[in-house]
Amino acid sequence: MPEKAVIRNIHLTLIRYSHYDFAPMKRVPSITSPIISITRKASKSLYRQVYEGYRKAILEGSLRAGQRVPSSRVQAAELQVSRIPVLNAYAQLLAEGYFESRVGSGTVVSRSLPERSGAGQAGRETSTKRTSTRRAISKRCAKLPARERFFAGRGLGPFLASQVSSEHFPLRIWNRLVTRHARRTGARTLDYGDPMGLKELREAIAGHLRTARGVRCDASQIVIVSGSQQGLEITARVLLDAGDRLWIEEPGYAYARGVFEFSGCKIVPVPVDEEGLNVASGVKKCRNARAALVTPSHQYPLGVTMSASRRLQLLDWAESNRSWIIEDDYDSEYRYESMPVTSLQGLDRNSRVVYIGTFSKVLFPSVRLGYIVAPEDLVERFLAVRFAMDIGPATFHQAVLADFIREGHFSRHVRRMRAVYAERRSVLIQCIQEELGARVEIGGAQAGMHFCMMVKGISDREIAERAAARGITLVPLSRLYYGKAMRQGFIVGFGSTPVEQIPGAVRELRNAMAN
Amino acid sequence: MPEKAVIRNIHLTLIRYSHYDFAPMKRVPSITSPIISITRKASKSLYRQVYEGYRKAILEGSLRAGQRVPSSRVQAAELQVSRIPVLNAYAQLLAEGYFESRVGSGTVVSRSLPERSGAGQAGRETSTKRTSTRRAISKRCAKLPARERFFAGRGLGPFLASQVSSEHFPLRIWNRLVTRHARRTGARTLDYGDPMGLKELREAIAGHLRTARGVRCDASQIVIVSGSQQGLEITARVLLDAGDRLWIEEPGYAYARGVFEFSGCKIVPVPVDEEGLNVASGVKKCRNARAALVTPSHQYPLGVTMSASRRLQLLDWAESNRSWIIEDDYDSEYRYESMPVTSLQGLDRNSRVVYIGTFSKVLFPSVRLGYIVAPEDLVERFLAVRFAMDIGPATFHQAVLADFIREGHFSRHVRRMRAVYAERRSVLIQCIQEELGARVEIGGAQAGMHFCMMVKGISDREIAERAAARGITLVPLSRLYYGKAMRQGFIVGFGSTPVEQIPGAVRELRNAMAN
Q1: Gap between the Cα atoms of A343 and A212, Å rounded
Q2: To probe the interface with B, which of A116, A138, A350, A499 has the most B CB atoms within 10 Å?
Q3: Which residues does chain A have within 8 Å of residue B124's beta carbon, measured at their own beta carbons?
Q4: Smallest Cα–Cα separation from B316: which of B347, B361, B281, B362?
Q5: Which of B320, B379, B385, B495 has its C-alpha lying 20 to 30 A from B354's C-alpha?
Q6: What band does B21 get if pLDDT is binned at 50, 70 and 90?
């Protein structure tokens, strides 16, 4: 049979290779006493027992490099087993390089194995667990804050931001699309897809962004990512080197800032006031920053909308300074008192804005889909970075989401949720005003799924601790400052709390603030 | 209604804010001639036309900061429309900061808007497209190689590596699991999941790795990622800083190397011979490297398996030098002439090995699921980096894959594919030996879905070019060297080529090599 012949041929080549680098012959005693034992009662095959017995003996140092191994015939007789499992075990040990075989000298323990001493091996086994000192990792990683195992899970109380009302998601429709695509999945969709993302989805998103967000874009500029975090990560890599300076909003979103800190960027905190990022202050602090990271639609955490004049000032700065603007439009879909404010990207005439959005808040977090709108001339560089990071996004749910948007379910869902959140928001504001009155001031409630509740003359961290004791997680505003905290307050989310639970939750909050 | 009252209250606050920073009053003429025009035939609402008309006039500079806006009554009369759309448009322009209104002075174009000149604006519109010079991006990104838009797609010929036989994937079973999970999906699964990955999947993977790969691990050490590329990315961040030295295999896998180069690591290429990475040579070149990146089961591209002695040498080096080993076990499931060789991680007694695997090759590429096995004491740091990069993996297909493994479909599929690939491999080797004979030498065919075909006295890039003209993509071995190419040859994949197409493909290859 030619096939067999070919394989044998290769195998011979292998064995020839393994001889290429011999140490000078030393006199080493051959193995006399039985080195391995087997049991017929074990669930392991005889072959496996012989193989593992030898391997263990070699690794633990009880068999030494160059020691002659009994012939398979002798070993089989010693163990009182047939010769086949012994032959198979020897072949495996040869293939893996524990044994070597040489014409004339039979099979020996591989001479190139480093020395192992039995005692040393046994002692080393648990060394990691014993050492209490931390082993050296990268400096950049050592600086990263520790993470809770379960991120933003349920059970964190009624006021956590970035929580969506999952009960309102049209799961029946979504699952119908999932099932439909499962039926349609063919061999083609199993292959690597376009690293930029599925064309149908990119077209659907471009269409949505043009009409709903005033973004000037074409599907070819869209990069599908796993959420805004990955969007920021890719953007940071395309635009910034370690040491480059970046304007961030003060206070701002710590996870976004973290992406740039991890890249080694120098952070320039620029204060946010009621009109958004104070551009003049940024220019004064560091005119030559390479980029600015902003949330103009609904600033996180203060909730303010960047005014038209600040938008134009920022664009002018970017243009004259050849800097970039990174617009994180994380929850712009919901706006309550006016029409949605169009994106900063849509005002830009010089392609200086990278626009980033996510479906985590408007659909559901575990879908892990978001997008970047890259400037036209940088699309190819975004592609290169996206590919280098993780090849590309999974295909299946991109196709599901494309249909969800194209068939109108997406806009219906957004309309419906706008009403749901609007109700929760106004009930929450009303309850807060009734229960807490003048002790707090609400800001940034025009959009999104959270607002900011300022307090005065009291430590927000202290209240947060007291609230935590009552099972209410509150994120203190003072924690979201990069530098010194200028205001005290809380991020109050209302995405996941049903209307009927709000009055009780606010009473609990009042009690936490009182005692 | 209390709700309305609350909202009005906030709105008033908003307007109050917008007054906080006025420029000194200047005399600016009020608007006299009609600045906007509307048409009743347009699909846009009257409100939208008024809003956009003003916005455009302001952005283009035909309306200047401080100019008085006609009252809504006057404007409505001028346009011959009802007052409601004008009032709505004015409210939006006020909310966005294009207008400002002040007791006593009526509504004016916002004074804080930067100067816009009509001519300048029009000229700037197309500036990006006109400038042929590239705009400044990060140096690290500028160095990244350009990417083909479609990665490893079909139609690249019969010999491309990393291609799987998608037709053999049990899609019916997979899709049944998808449909089952679609029915089961509840609000809980829509929430953010564990950043480390779904517990059920991590347990299934740990079980598989312990038995099939001899990996010593527990589910708590598994980090679910989107494939080996992201696995390498996360590992690089945990372990290495810019400037740290890393041993890589020479020749080696360029995309993996790229992850570390992008991080700013210094690459130390260490030659690979028939026993795998030459550890002694690595020690001689740079003993103090922080880490070594290896593919011990089936070296990419040469296909050799790292010998037992090299494995032990490498582990000894890592232990004595406090360095890390990154084991990329990208296609270890298929082994043809012996039992699978257990992982390097399984030999390690000091938790110095980070083990990375992927489902891209054993299931299908677009599933985008892989895993890291992190050393126990570093789990928390891997979690921190994973979270910082992109929060966590999408939940749905993790659940599907967990069932696929637990219900035995995974091991059945692997067994079946081992037979399929074994046949393709032996037919391919036979055809190459018949058609090309002594002109080539095959190496590294013991495992995986590709082997290496060496050529002598001829440029592999030249042959690759000729083959490309015949529609056959061949990856030249010489391209996979970081330094000077020491051997010429090709990576020959057989994952996606049915047996009956192999003889013809090899004849084509012979013709490409002949002329």
Answers
A1: 9
A2: A138
A3: 319, 349-350
A4: B347
A5: B495
A6: very low
Q: Which residue has the tokens 């664009």?
A: A315
Contact yes or no for B151 and A179 at CB 8 A: no
Q: What is the pLDDT of residue B397?
A: 94
What CA–CA distance (Å, rounded) separates A186 from A199? 17
pLDDT per residue as tens digits for the range A133-152: 678 899 888 888 887 655 54
Predicted model pTM: 0.86
Count the neighbouring beta carbons within 10 Å of the beta carbon of residue A209.
23
CA A251 from centroid of its chain's CA atoms:
23
Pairwise CA distance, residues A489 & A161, whole Å: 14
User: CA-CA distance, A25 to A407, in Å (whole number)?
Assistant: 77
When CB atoms are compared, the residue of A145, A319, A384 closest to B145 is: A384
Torsion, CA A135, CA A141, CA A146, CA A151, rounded to 10 = -130
User: Is residue A479 very low, low, confident or very high in pLDDT (cuts 50, 70, 90)?
Assistant: very high
Instruction: List the beta strands (DSSP E) in A104-191.
Output: 106-109
Mean pLDDT (chain B, rounded): 86
Number of A/B CB contacts below 8 angstroms equals 406
Interface contact B390-A171, CB threshold 8 A: no
Chain B CB contacts of A191 under 8 Å are 152-154, 166, 364-366
Greater confidence (B247 vs B53) lies with B247
Domains of chain A and CATH, by start: 3-109 (1.10.10.10), 186-411 (3.40.640.10)
Q: Which residues of B touch A127 (CB under 8 A)?
A: 349-350
Mean pLDDT of A13-25: 35
Among B51, B187, B339, select the one facing A92 at the smallest CB separation.
B339
- Mark yes or no for CB contact A350/B18 under 8 Å: no
Model confidence at A23, pLDDT cuts 50, 70, 90, reads very low
For residue A32, is pLDDT > 60?
no
Q: What value, to the nearest 5°, has the Cα angle with vertex B249 and ends B245 and B253?
A: 105
Record the tokens describing residue B273, joined without a space. 């011979």
Distance (Å, whole) CA A72 – CA A280: 84
Range list of H helices, B263-305: 279-286
Which of the four pLDDT bands, split at 50, 70 and 90, describes residue A414?
very high
What does the pLDDT read at residue B124?
42
User: For residue B513, what pLDDT band results from cuts at 50, 70 and 90?
Assistant: confident
* Bridging pattern class, strands B324-328 and B291-294: parallel
What is d(CA B62, CA A480) in angstroms, rounded to the nearest whole number?
A: 41
